[in-house]
Specification:
With 277 residues, the protein is of the alpha/beta class. It is 34% helix and 22% strand. A hairpin with a 4-residue loop joins β3 and β4.
Length: 277
Amino acid sequence: MKRYLIFTDLDGTLLDHENYSFGANKKTISTIINNKNEIIFNTSKTFSECKKLLKELKLLNMPFSTENGAVIYFPKIRFNKIKNSSSFGRYWSVRIAKLSSKNWYQFLKLKQKKYNFFIAQDLSPKILKKYTNLNNTNMMLDREASQIILWEDNLTKLKLFKKDLKSEKDGVLIKGSRFMQISSICNKRIAKKLISHAYDIQFRDKYSINTIALGDSKNDIDMLNSCKYSCLIKNSSDTYPKLRLNKKNVFKSSKIAPDGWSEVLYKLNKTLENKIF
């Protein structure tokens, strides 16, 4: 029986949007993993943030993607060297986004002369806590291939900024629930595709091509549209990501995170011939 690759967003999906609790999802995750399925973080969070959570949820042997698909990490204990990867501690690291966080910081400092925005890295811990509810924001700022900003200018200026970003650095702006991420071209769909391909090469037919994805916001849409089974978590505004009109196999939670995560997977599981748990 082929097992499933389950790609999941974190904040507002697996984790409570405000206090970052995973609630009862740890028990659900344990059941899913014991049934030989894979749970793969595909998140805007950084490596440092993911590493801590992976340890808590006992998922250290799973690959994961950070900074909205900018970098992918494959644990060496299970994966042979990945094409175009470099060694990064116990992981093979594949950086999809071309420019480093330092490059983007230098670019953004110049753009502050033309546009009104704050770079998160320059804000005090007190101000960052106001936006994130985090007592320690060091891990959030420990970025490899992106920067995050708070936009203070108008929409017309935002359109001009996006044009500068594209024309000068071939960069993209990815809007999250709290910040906007600035990076080279990357997204969660690309990360999901590359991770799935690595599984196919190294584990052959062990895992189903019918992947599962869970998300709650706009930056999850590409990933959700590209998976066979799309699980939408109700967000704090009581809405869901808007997928393409002809998307099939869409499942919606009636609860917000963290409870909505387990809820929607149980809904999906009832429809599957090969069960997740």
